[in-house]
Amino acid sequence: MLRGFYTAASGMVAQQRHQEALSNNIANANTPGYKADQTALRAFPEMLLQQMGNHKIPTTRGLNLPVQQPIGTLNTGVYVQEAIPNFGQGDIRETAVTTDLALVNGALPDETGNLFFSVQNEAGEVRYTRNGNLTVDGQGFLVTNHGYYVLDQAGNPIQTNGMEFTVTRDGFLQTETQNIQLGIVYTENANELVKEGNGLFSGEADAVPAGTTYQIQQGFLEQSNVDSLQSMTQMMEAYRMFETNQKVLKAYDESMGKAVSEIARLG
Q1: What is the pLDDT of residues 190-213, one digit of tens each?
Q2: Burial label, 145 (beta-carbon count in 10 A; 0-12, 13-18, 19+)
């Protein structure tokens, strides 16, 4: 009986966390470059149930041999193992804003690989993002909408001295006096990156390998890859599963209460 409580409760907790991830996806459906989280549900290890007893041997000494009769397996619940970002390319939307840059994937060496802008967070650490919603701060540096410096290929902040610049399709930022290559990086397995807030990822990334093709589209933004309709449908499914586990938990509680009250009455 108590095992049933834990199994139903674990299902409720898992569906709650699944719904939280879906809610966060929907909240960021309009965030440029946002990558939707996908929750991976996994069952706890199964338990093998066996009936234990004795088999009496008809001898003068009356020997009893222990025997075990397999009954079957029992699942002990489910949990959210991890949230995995979906790194699929989002739709490209034209904004006509010169500081908006869309990183469009071309031919990548590996199916799990992906390209990112490299930026510097407030602690001076290198992070990666697909959000090309950029601007120029008061000191003339190219920054993200959260104030993180956009880096060039050498890992330095990019000084534009104003809004008058052009970005070529192959990733060079050009002004009247300079030609700077944007710090586009590549990771072989994007799933190994750790998702942080404000659209940032941390982990290992390298220079773009030979044979990789991509485009930078100025005046465009990569949209979130969240499918709002699908997310709403999944939220309804998660709610129904939560509600089902809740009813099971309530039934266990009523059965336990009835058993306790009847045993007390018999005593």
Answers
A1: 999 999 989 999 999 999 998 899
A2: middle
Residues shown for the chain: 267
How far is the C-alpha of 223 from the C-alpha of 131, rounded, in Å?
8
Can you name the residues that pair with 187 across neighbouring β-strands? 114
Q: Which residues contact 230 (CB under 8 A, 6 or more apart)?
A: none
Q: ∠ CA(166), CA(171), CA(173), 5° rounding? A: 35
List, in sequence order, every residue forming a beta bridge with 214; answer none if it has no partner: 105
Q: How far apart are CA 13 and CA 203, in angstroms?
A: 29
Residues 181 and 261 in one domain: no
| Domain span holding position 260 | 2-83+227-266
Distance from C-alpha of 224 to C-alpha of 36, rounded to nearest angstrom: 8
pTM, to two decimals: 0.80
